[in-house]
């Protein structure tokens, strides 16, 4: 069973369920090794099993392009960011990233968005929106997509 806590953690890892969560869990071991982390993700069998024993804020599902769901999540995202007080927020998307990363930047927290490995042709809608927000560091999992704005960080493959 995931633990919940309001302790301060250096790293907050934010992901939708499914592949986004699996990729972030895999990448987290390489990106922030040994640093205490807390998670924000959807409440599902997958998240409960994958993150068993870790600090997790389980949130309601936000569907693809569910802009109203993202807006509804903003107050909760604000409370989580203010209570956890992370030094770094990392997300692999999708809509949940749109609720958390802009607020994290507003609070002057270092933020990183890692585009899904399945996005081999270019950024997702989430990635394109976040690219317009100054200070969010953008990462791709495909060398050919790296440029002056998107940094290659390796791949889960």
Summarize this, please?
This protein is an alpha/beta fold and 157 residues long.
Description of the molecule:
With 157 residues, this protein is α/β, with parallel strands linked by helices. It is built from five helices and seven strands, in the order βαβαβαβαβαββ. A seven-stranded parallel beta sheet has the order 3-2-1-4-5-6-7. Strand 1 (11-15), helix 1 (19-31) and strand 2 (37-42) form a beta-alpha-beta unit. Helix 3 packs across helix 4 (95-106). The radius of gyration is 14 Å and the shape is globular.
Question: Key terms for this structure?
Answer:
157 residues; alpha/beta; 7-stranded parallel sheet
Topology:
Blueprint (H helix, E strand, L loop, with lengths): L10 E5 L3 H13 L5 E6 L2 H6 L4 E5 L7 H18 L3 E6 L1 H12 L3 E5 L10 H6 L5 E5 L9 E3 L5
Parallel strand pairs: 1-2, 1-4, 2-3, 4-5, 5-6, 6-7
Helix pairs in contact: 3-4
Radius of gyration: 14 Å
What's the β-strand tally? 7
SSE order, one letter for each helix or strand: EHEHEHEHEHEE
Nearest-integer average pLDDT:
92
Q: Point out poorly predicted stretches.
A: none
Distance between the termini: 28 Å
| Sheet with the most strands, sense and barrel status | 7 strands, parallel
Helix- and strand-based class?
alpha/beta
How many helix segments?
5
User: So what's the overall shape?
Assistant: globular
Helical amount:
25-40%
